[in-house]
Amino acid sequence: MPTSSQCDPVTRFAPSPSGYLHLGHAYAALTAANKARLGGGEFLLRLEDIDRERCRSEFEDMILTDLQWLGLTWKEPILRQSERHDAYQAALSLLFKKDLLYQCFCTRQDIRREIESSGAAPHGPDGPLYPGTCRSLSDSIRNQRISDGEGYALRLDMRNATSQAGRLEWNDIEAGRNIANPDQFGDVVLARKDSPTSYHLSVVVDDHFQGVTLVTRGEDLFPATHVHRLLQALLTLNTPDYLHHKLILGPDGKKFSKRDQSVTLHTLRHQGKMPDDIYAELGLSPAR
Ligand code: GLU
Description:
The protein is of the alpha/beta class. Helices cover 37% and strands 17% of the residues.
């Protein structure tokens, strides 16, 4: 059900604890916190730690230290995606029941070969579209490969999903109303053999669970909202409003990388910078 973010917005900052926070993260966190504070709402924190290889408790501790140093407070509890697998599993089961998921056994190399041999390579926002190799496997072949122990990802059957969902829109509080066009992504992966959920699935399930009414995030994630709006419709989840804010870029015009230690809040703090210096550099007021 659509919600309005105009009054008492519930916002969130959702970093992955796979590195230290940098100035770009500070901008995202302060934007979310300021929207909540100015609208009389609530600011929440979610740790997107589903990638167990890359996420570490050391980074998680530093995220909390950095946010507190910036003067941010959030409503407890902090949500950790690593503790939410049952919820993601329930969402996947629902999509299976609607006949919208299928097992994909292709490796990256299989996909590349298939695309090369077909001579057609339609591209989406995340690169070449999956050519659909496993979409039409018969049940008997599919079951045989599963019982042989072959690993697989779960993909959304995009054509069926969009036809079940019909026309969808979302509201961006700056960019206005957008018509959702998730087809441009093709059959997105919603779970992998080494990770029982995906970014797209966990974000919509958790934004609903946390009662988020205004999602603020960088404009690099604008295209992902097409897929998120579709998943919300298929899973009967709330649709928040969105604000896709500008990205804070380095002097080379590129996004900061997690490997670039020179702009982490940890480094800046140890160089003697104060929170006010960070607000001034980002052109934002303190979220207090
Ligand atoms: N965890 C994502 C990131 O660190 C943000 C996800 C979102 O805001 O939807 O970029």
